[in-house]
Amino acid sequence: MDLRQLQAFLAVVDHGGFTAAARATHTVQSNISTHVARLERQLDATLIDRSTGEPTQEGEAVVTRIRRIQNELTALEADVASLQGAPRGLVRVGVIGTTGRWLLPLLVQALADNAPQIELVVAEGSTSSLSRRIVEGDLDIGVLGLPVDEPDLRTTELFSEDHVVIAPSGHPLTKLAAPISIEQLAQHELLLAAAGTAFRVELDAIFKSASITPKTKLEVDGIRLLASLAFQGFGVAIVPATAAPGWIGGDWERILVDGLGRRAVGLANRRRGMPSVATQATANLIRSIVRNEADSVTGLQVLS
């Protein structure tokens, strides 16, 4: 088994067939076919379904491993270059949207000031989608909502933030004296994060401890979409504080609820493999930014 076989197989998967793979890698189809066939003989398995050009179940497993190998090779080159000077290389960071809104501008500036040879690629998504991408090697690190139910990830807490309620102006909840109680909140239909998400797990635990079953109007897998629906008057939503910054205009109000608790946000990386020097430098900058800036963001508190 050698890198040429792995690269040829991955090219077939990425480009949808042997002919397209040969064209993309500037070689002839017979070379691609030979490398893939040798890899299949060594693994004693069919990796590509010749009738469809799609990877088989065994092929999918091999794809995952090859991508990890590619990531390690890229990190190897970047680490050697970093040891000869400033940290350099590509770092792919996943971040939940509510945190990315205030963290990313500070991170981009910090990299420009301290590690200008690090190239940053950012992916926004939910905690569940980003955690899978980190495990699969598509992302190097992530800033995610905690807890994360993924044994292949290592997480460390960065900060916590208030749970708040946002409601259309004029809603009955906005007429109550603040802070309202969970019991008062539970009398109304709510827009909630999707079941099983980190944010929803926290809320379910809070409601359960109060022996309350919330009335669900709609479940949404995406905190910013959840908040947007409330901003537009669709209903009452429970969101983290950063999802409802004061500069967003509209006919809505933020409501504090006594006992609604806080959510934790943390930094995640794969347990297997060693992060590149550039990835470690980026993670350290994120921690530094949180320590220095999180207290200035409404509703956030740095964890000790």
Our measurement of the CA-to-CA distance between the termini, rounded to an integer number of angstroms, reads: 48 Å
Strand segment count: 10
The level of helicity is 40-55%
Radius of gyration: 24 Å
Principal-axis shape:
elongated
Number of contiguous helices: 10
Low-confidence stretches: none
The average pLDDT is 90
Largest sheet: 10 strands, mixed
Spell the H/E element sequence: HHHHEHEHEEHEHEHEEEHE
Strand content is 15-25%
Structural class: alpha/beta
Q: Can you characterise this structure?
A:
The structure is a single chain. The chain is of the alpha/beta class and 304 residues long. 43% of the residues lie in helices and 22% in strands. It contains ten helices and ten strands. α1 crosses α2 (18-24) and α2 (18-24) crosses α3 (29-43). The relative contact order is 0.15. The model has no long low-confidence stretch (mean pLDDT 90).
Helices and strands, with pairings:
Elements: H1 3-15, H2 18-24, H3 29-43, H4 57-83, E1 89-95, H5 97-114, E2 118-124, H6 127-136, E3 141-146, E4 153-168, H7 182-185, E5 189-193, H8 198-209, E6 215-220, H9 223-231, E7 236-240, E8 252-255, E9 262-270, H10 277-293, E10 300-302
Parallel strand pairs: 1-2, 1-3, 5-6, 5-7
Antiparallel strand pairs: 3-9, 4-7, 4-8, 4-9, 4-10
Helix pairs in contact: 1-2, 1-3, 2-3, 5-10
Brief summary of the model shown:
By secondary structure, the protein is α/β, with parallel strands linked by helices. The protein has helices at 3-15, 18-24, 29-43, 57-83, 97-114, 127-136, 182-185, 198-209, 223-231, 277-293, and strands at residues 89-95, 118-124, 141-146, 153-168, 189-193, 215-220, 236-240, 252-255, 262-270, 300-302. Helix 2 (18-24) packs across helix 3.
